[in-house]
Amino acid sequence: MTNTVPGGIPAVPVPPGEVYEAATVRPYAVTGGRVRSATSDLPLEALVEVMPGAVNGYGLPPEKRAILQHAAHNYVSVAELSALLRLPLGVVRILVADLSDEGYVTVHTSAPVNVHTGHGHNPGLSLSVLESVLNGISSL
Question: The dihedral of CA 70, 76, 80, 86: what is its sign?
Answer without folding.
Answer: positive
